[in-house]
Amino acid sequence: MTNYNRVYNFSAGPSMLPIEVLEKVQKELLNYEGSGQSVMEMSHRSKEFKKIAEDAEANLRKLLNIPKNYKVLFVQGGGTLQFSMVALNLLRNSKKADYVLTGTWAKKAYKEAAKFGDIKVVASSEEDTFTYVPKIKKEDIRPDADYVYITDNNTIYGTAYNYVPETGDIPLVADMSSNFLSREFDITKFGLVWAGAQKNVGPAGVTIVIVREDLLGHADASVPTYLDYKVHVDNDSMYNTPPCFSLYVAGEVFKHLLETGGVAAKQKANEEKAALLYDYIDSSEMFKCPVAKEDRSLMNVVFVTGDADLDKKFVAEAKEAGMVNLNGHRSIGGMRASIYNAMPKEGVETLIAFMKKFEAENK
Ligand SMILES: *Cc1c(COP(=O)(O)O)cnc(C)c1O
After folding, report:
1. pLDDT tens digits for range 111-137
2. In angstroms, rounded to a whole number, what is the distance separating the alpha carbons of residues 213 and 15?
3. Which atom of ligand 1 is nearest to the CA of 155?
4. Which of 98, 146, 152, 199 is labelled catalytic?
5. Is 311 one of the catalytic residues?
6. Does the annotation count 279 as an active-site position?
7. Which residue's CA is the closest to the ligand 1 atom numbered 4?
8. What is the pLDDT of residue 2?
9. Residue 107 above 90 pLDDT?
């Protein structure tokens, strides 16, 4: 393999992509499959691009075993626009929705939805600085709620739902921005799942929405056209120009996943990587993970030394050693190693070796 002098990038997003995908994109950059053009220059109505979009959807359907009554959309606006889109489309009867607050992204989603309906916080772990994921029971949910909203993986606090909440007939909506395609899940347990691409799927720009058919077509007439999911469904995500290049690269990531054992193989690899890192942290005298064991994320591993200056020193020395973006989110400090699908096991092993050395040198 060519040595590109690449670092191990532990960024929470945008983040690492598989080297094989980057190499393929590089090869195709100036002349995509004999079209004489780059995908960047290509009409989104061309037959080449149509195939790129169709293949991306078909391959994603294969990866997650998505049944016909679920629609797959590729839209713009990032994760943040979904906070409003979900509410504008799914507050369709009682205009009530129940939210679980498990971190910054969940709070933002809640605040946005509260502009449009009667939104209730049914559980929160804020009093414990979001170090765990509250267990919600069906009795906690208002029986006439239009949907229940969770943030499946909390990128900043390093927690994840390691179970699917039981909501009965009430559609469950999940923000999977930072763990989409990292582990298997049963889409039929959800009404809607969405994910911005730039954490685990591709470059920033495209956001994936998977939505059950019966939840479409209820948006109020006053909802802006672009924000109505049904408009995107009816136009095969080509109502307007899609984020062509991001969608193309995401499609290449899907192909690569299918060629390398699918989501099940990735889940196994991700579980191994995360176990290595958490086991070391739990055995260390210096580093601590504040997150409850059963709620730990496979993707974002948060840890601290307990001394802010030592944390800073760690992040700076790790950077010199070729491991970048290990600082925690600007809102909480400490460290965070984001070990998404594209982070190889060697990256995690290199980090652990570095942590051991740092611990020995800074006793
Ligand atoms: C990054 C992130 C978002 C926001 O995504 P943008 O594309 O920056 O708007 C939302 N939810 C979660 C869980 C995230 O990790």
Report:
1. 999 999 999 999 999 999 999 999 998
2. 32
3. 15
4. 199
5. no
6. no
7. 79
8. 74
9. yes
Q: What is the pLDDT of residue 363?
A: 87
CA proximity to 256, closest of 22, 27, 47: 22
Please tell me the distance from the alpha carbon of residue 255 to that of residue 56, in angstroms, as a whole number: 8
How does the average pLDDT of the chain come out, rounded? 97
User: From the candidates 152, 175, 295, 311, which is the catalytic residue?
Assistant: 175
| Section 57-82 average pLDDT | 98
Q: 90 alpha carbon to ligand 1 midpoint, in Å?
A: 20
In the residue annotation, 105 being an active-site residue is answered as: yes
Q: Of the candidates 289, 292, 271, which has an alpha carbon nearest to the alpha carbon of residue 280?
A: 289
